[in-house]
Amino acid sequence: MNTVLIVGAGPVGAVCALALQQQGIAARVLEAQPADARADTRTLALSHGSRLILDRLGVWDKLADVTPITRIHISQRGALGVARLAAEDVAVPALGYVLPYAVLTEALKQALAESCIDVEYGVAVERVESESACATVHTADGRALTAPLVVVADGGRGETAPTPKFERDYDQMAVVCEVLTELPHGNQAFERFTPEGPTALLPKGDRYALVWTAKRGDAERIAQLPDAEFLVALARHFGGRQGRFLNASPRKTFPLKLAWTGSEAADHVVRIGNAAQTLHPVAGQGFNIGLRDAWELAALCGDLPASEIGSVAMLAAYARGRRVDVLGGVGFTDFLVRVFSNDIAPLRHARGLGLLALEVLPPLKAFVARRMIFGARG
Q1: What is the pLDDT of residues 23-39, one digit of tens each?
Q2: Which fold has domain 170-256?
Q3: Most C-beta atoms within 10 A of its C-beta, which of 10, 226, 309, 361?
Q4: pTM (two decimals)
């Protein structure tokens, strides 16, 4: 009964379980996917703040294929204004790190096993019921499991997902792949704003991970272009700062939206990560906010007597503590997408002035960089 139940063994759920154990609190994890599920092929951009969390959990040193981002070049296509952020601006070794999603999930899976945390794979959760004394998780195989606290970290994909309190469909999709450029990346990332949406190049190994945002119909067309035509279109869209684009891996697409459900669910139930908020990938905030959700929830549990874990007062305190960071990330990414994804002349000039101010004012540059690294309370 005193064990915290976590729905979802992805990175956010795994980090929560490991952090709870560090606080001396037992955790049990239920994961809908089988243990041998096919590895996710996505690429992750972790902030330096997320690295610190993984380091404290003993996971960071187990990660391979990690590429640091030491500089970020920010610009807008067809208009003045360039800003450059560097790790030395905020005295950190790197602004962020790029790695395969599968590498992180495998390292966390290993850490869960080594920590003897109970993880059940292939267990789908049909519903979570809240009562005055506990929460009950009903699984597809007919079991009813009770706990003082149920943490929903299933990415918002499970049967328990409520209707978001606020959502926005950007009518955009991301085209993702890896590309090789003529010039080496030198650990520099690019964020290029265009009227169709932002485009990011993230250093990954000797290549770049590309996230090309476009209107839904355009994205499908772009993704299906033959390689040679795709590379020409990308060069025309992004420009020649990295020389020619030499080759590209197969393209995938996924829709982009904003959905904020909030952490509050009911007594003894809390939502974290993408189960609480889904953000546009611009500026790489969503996943990192989810890891901070997990870390701060575990820290709060560790500060309380066992009898108060999952209580109304505890969950209200957690929601208050996360509100500034979460809503700050939601507002920041939504602002960037809406203000930069257009070709309105007054806004174009204002964006240029904003980028110029970011470039020439060191305090502003440090302010923005620290909030990208550590969140709204950075």
Answers
A1: 999 999 999 999 988 87
A2: D-Amino Acid Oxidase; Chain A, domain 2 (3.30.9)
A3: 10
A4: 0.93
